[in-house]
Amino acid sequence: MIVGLGNIGREYEATRHNVGFMVVDSVAAKSKKSFVPGKGEYYFAEIKHGGEEIVLLKPTTFMNNSGIAVSDAMGRFDVDVQDLLVVYDDFNIPLGKLRLRKGGSDGGHNGVASVIYHLNDDAFPRLRCGIGTEKVVPGRDMAGFVLSEFDAVETSEVETMVKKAVDAVYVFVNSGIHTAMNRFN
Predict the structure, then answer these.
(1) Which fold has domain 2-184?
(2) φ and ψ at 47, to 5 degrees?
(3) pLDDT of residue 48
(4) Exactly one of 17, 49, 109, 118 is catalytic; which is it?
(5) Most buried among 97, 99, 127, 175, using CB within 10 Å?
(6) What is the pLDDT of residue 141?
(7) Among positive and negative, which fits the CA dihedral 118, 100, 55, 173?
(8) Which residues pair with 49 in a beta bridge?
(9) Taking the model in full, what pTM does it have?
(10) What is the 3-state secondary structure (H, E, C) of the chain?
């Protein structure tokens, strides 16, 4: 299961906080699949890649409650925690850079904190997509920053990052987190 974290709604579509949605949308588009409403608070798409069946997930709970949808969907689709990859934005990583981890803390990300809480487990792989540290200033309104859209000059870098993230998703699915970490970190 590949989960993209983000916020539902047109007003959030192109924001920094929706990079996770951008990545799973791109994976679905490559397979010519569309997201459909799930039986829980999420949209999903099922695809195949390299002989593997993959569930793509977009929670509709808004970022801070993402774990509700992830936990529910994992139960419905019978997915083990090591077969989960959570894709999300990280303002502590420079724009365009990717970082994969096999588990750990939430790093201050409320969506990841919710997933950890609702799974009661922090040992799930994650793909962090950099949304720019150079704009992070102590005392700045971080909620406003992550909910802002990318500047016009950042657009091509974001598109490149999303393409690399899609490649990282496929490597994770076919070869596991360690290979993906070695290749993309």
Answers:
(1) Rossmann fold (3.40.50)
(2) -135, 170
(3) 93
(4) 17
(5) 127
(6) 67
(7) negative
(8) 52
(9) 0.94
(10) CEEECCCCCHHHCCEHHHHHHHHHHHHHHHCCCCCEECCCCEEEEEEEECCEEEEEEEECCCHHHHHHHHHHHHHHHCCCHHHCEEEEEECCCCCCCEEEECCCCCCCCHHHHHHHHHHCCCCCCEEEEECCCCCCCCCCCHHHHHCCECCHHHHHHHHHHHHHHHHHHHHHHHHCHHHHHHHHC
Cα(3)–Cα(56) distance, integer angstroms: 6
- In tens, the pLDDT along 136-185 reads 556 666 777 888 889 898 999 999 999 999 999 999 999 999 999 999 99
Q: What is the pLDDT of residues 86-144, one digit of tens each?
A: 999 998 899 999 999 999 999 989 999 999 999 999 999 999 999 986 565 566 667 77
Q: Which two tokens stand for residue 129?
A: 């997509």
